[in-house]
Specification:
Strand order of the largest sheet of chain A: 3-2-1-4-5
Number of domains of chain A: 1
Helix content of chain A: 10-25%
CATH topology of the largest domain in chain B: Sulfite Reductase Hemoprotein, domain 1
Helix content of chain B: 25-40%
Oligomer: heterodimer
Shape of chain B: globular
Number of strands of chain B: 21
Largest sheet of chain A: 5 strands, antiparallel
Order of helices and strands of chain A: EEEHEEHH
Number of helices of chain A: 3
Radius of gyration of chain A: 18 Å
CATH architecture of the largest domain in chain B: 2-Layer Sandwich
Distance between the termini of chain B: 55 Å
Distance between the termini of chain A: 62 Å
Largest interface: A-B, 30 and 40 residues
Number of helices of chain B: 18
Chain lengths: 113, 550
């Protein structure tokens, strides 16, 4: 049973609950319509500690779909868009900020041809 | 190359089957995450920022061409076409799906490769000199003893749940290329009165509390290697702290007890077990030695005419000067392949590059490749007469940047672009630095300079022992970088000194350039290296220039 102390949660603004999908580790957010989404724009946003705790309870109850759930701050744009509010979450949402090593070597391309 | 016996091959197959069952049970919900996490970690599977990461063990950094091709195939089939070579001579794949991990592991097991001992609080993969068996300054091949330690430590029942991870490194050469002094246990192999033995140091390590290892035994005869290691591990396992993860490494225990008191405890434990089952007799060592298949090198002369002619080409000469090292066998050379091209993530290699390197290893280097802790690859057995042809082919696949040991040969952790522990990004800083220092002639003039970058205090980029170290920190959601100067990871290892307040991401490359310019202005001659100048001058002149108002 969760201790009363663990039920305290400080939030500084709008907050979503994020985790990694069990099957492939992809970043997901608890969705406003239930379940998980891979688009932060459709995440459920909590505005109070109680709301976020409720979202976390839902997330922790679904650890066979997504693991390691935690609250993450977001910014809500004037048009209602949801964006990560810190660098770590921006990188989680957008992927590495550097280009992944790619490129087929001429020799390999020739072999494939 | 060490050739696994039937026991090892069967063990790997069984381990893959066991992990496959564990993954299936996890995906079916029969195991919860708390139960599954330690099981995946025991197989080198981490959950990082964006995906699962598989860390694959390359025992003492030695790979066959066949094994490298298997890694290329895993990168292509299960990942995104590349792998990242690490500072512990391993490789990481960043994007493998959980359900496909058992298949990837099965493919690797076919060539005797696995992720065991690359994670968790166990004795990790033993590292050693990437030039082992080939180095001109080597006393003996240290891989024999690394393999002895592997066989003793894998699944050691007493040391599966240590207070924290435990890393051992061995060097057997005059020049320490394995950074043994910053390992939990460092072993320096040498001979005394014709007998092989080890100087044993303990309690080295980087991370948030960096320490240089302390020598607790000046000479340990080779036959006592395992019993002495067992005594060290027992002393640590019983006395190491488990109440605080940040104080759980052996370095804290050694520091808090004092090296002398720690050594006394080890010696007392050792006295009880030194003549027991762990005694390494000649037959046991020979049995392991016999399973190493070392190439029968041709009898050749040094400096063949074709090499002398090629050295007239300044591009080849520049590459040769920093990428080719003396070999113990005449007419041969050790070649380092730079995985640090300008503007690319340090240590990454594409699947195509891995395949091409495997082909070149077969053609020019007896099919053997090594991984260096500097995140480069090495071909340990190259005929000098083949160097010009090899260079041309290495250039064609992008691994002949002439920067080995120079400022753009940067060690960097994956940082916040991949790692769930990081506070700041390492790779973009490394990329900008390689772009700033892209001129081959300029970096050759700057000379030997080790620049290491870590994205957090866990120090996977070994910033503490960089001649210039860069540590990423986060302040109010902005990346800043602390700069240290004067660190060294070799036999005279020392921890770098923090030179001042952290600088912003936009300033860090300029600050590094000012440090380099200070060195160029103040060095006594081009023969005085950056680190020698820092030691002679102290850090003050560098600090003044780095932080001078602009």
């Amino acid at each position: 049973m969760t201790s009363p102390l663990q039920r305290k949660l400080k939030i500084a603004g709008p907050t979503v609950v994020t985790a990694n999908r069990l099957a492939d580790g992809a970043v997901v957010w608890l969705s406003a319509t239930g379940g998980w989404t891979d688009r932060i724009g459709t995440a459920a946003v909590g505005a109070t500690s109680d709301e976020v705790l409720r979202l976390l309870d839902i997330a922790h109850g679904d650890e066979n779909t997504a693991v390691g759930a935690y609250p993450a701050p977001v910014r809500i744009g004037a048009d209602g868009t949801i964006e990560p509010a810190n660098l770590r979450e921006r990188i989680r949402a957008g992927g590495p900020t550097v280009a992944l090593p790619t490129g087929v070597l001429p020799a390999a391309a020739a072999k494939a041809a | 190359m060490y050739v696994y016996d039937e026991f090892d091959r069967a063990f790997l197959q069984e381990r893959v089957a066991e992990f496959r069952d564990q993954v299936e049970r996890r995906l079916a919900g029969e195991l919860n995450e708390e139960e599954f996490k330690p099981l995946r970690l025991m197989n080198g599977v981490y959950l990082q920022l964006h995906a699962y990461m598989l860390r694959v063990c390359i025992p003492y950094g030695t790979l066959s061409a066949r094994q490298l091709r298997a890694m290329a195939a895993v990168a292509r089939k299960y990942d995104r076409g590349y792998g990242h070579f690490t500072t512990r001579q391993n490789i990481q794949f960043n994007w493998i799906k959980l359900a496909e991990l058992p298949d990837a592991m099965a493919d690797l097991a076919e060539v005797g490769i696995h992720g065991i001992q690359t994670s968790g609080n166990c004795i990790r993969n033993t590292t050693t000199d990437p030039w082992a068996g080939a180095a001109a300054d080597e006393v003996e091949d240290p891989r024999l003893y690394a393999e002895v330690i592997r066989q003793w430590s894998t699944l050691h029942p007493e040391f599966t749940y240590l207070p924290r991870k435990f890393k051992i490194a061995i060097t057997a050469a005059k020049h320490d290329r394995a950074a043994i002094r910053v390992h939990d246990v460092g072993l320096r192999l040498y001979k005394r009165d014709g007998k092989t033995g080890f100087e044993v140091s303990v309690g080295g390590g980087l991370g948030r509390s960096p320490y240089i290892g302390k020598t607790i035994r000046d000479f340990l005869p080779e036959e006592d290697l395992l019993s002495y290691l067992e005594a060290i591990l027992r002393t640590y396992n019983l006395g190491g702290r488990r109440d605080n993860i940040y104080k759980a490494r052996i370095k804290i225990q050694v520091h808090e007890m004092g090296a002398e008191a720690f050594a006394q405890k080890v010696e007392a434990e050792w006295a009880e077990i030194r003549d027991g089952a762990l005694k390494l007799d000649k037959a046991a060592l020979d049995a392991i030695r016999d399973r190493f298949l070392n190439p029968a090198l041709e009898e050749l002369e040094d400096a063949p005419a074709v090499l002398a002619a090629a050295l007239a080409d300044p591009d080849f000469a520049r590459w040769h000067a920093n990428s080719v090292a003396p070999h113990k066998a005449k007419g041969h050379a050790i070649v380092t392949l730079s995985l640090k091209p300008v503007g690319a993530p340090p240590g990454d290699a594409t699947a195509d590059q891995m395949d091409a390197i495997a082909d070149l290893a077969d053609q020019y280097a007896y099919g053997e490749i090594r991984v260096a802790h500097e995140q480069n690859l090495t071909l340990p057995y190259v005929r000098q007469k083949d160097l010009p042809a090899l260079w041309a082919k290495l250039k064609a696949i992008g691994v002949a940047t002439p920067n080995v040991g120079l400022i753009s040969d940067i060690i960097a952790c994956p940082g916040l672009d991949y790692c769930s522990l990081a506070n700041a990004r390492s790779i973009p800083v490394a990329q900008k630095l390689t772009e700033r220092f892209a001129d081959d002639a300029r970096i050759a003039d700057i000379g030997r300079l080790h620049l290491n970058i870590s994205g957090c205090i866990n120090a996977c980029g070994h910033h503490h022992v960089g001649h210039i170290g860069i540590l990423g920190v986060e302040k109010k959601d902005e990346e800043f970088f602390q700069i240290t100067l004067g660190g060294k990871g070799n036999s005279k290892a020392r921890i770098g000194e923090l030179i001042g307040p952290a600088v912003s991401e936009g300033e860090v490359v300029d600050v590094v350039e000012r440090l380099v310019e200070t060195y160029l202005d103040l060095r006594t001659s081009p023969a005085e290296t950056f680190i020698a100048a820092v030691q002679r001058l102290g850090t003050d002149p560098f600090k003044e220039r780095a932080y001078a108002p602009r």
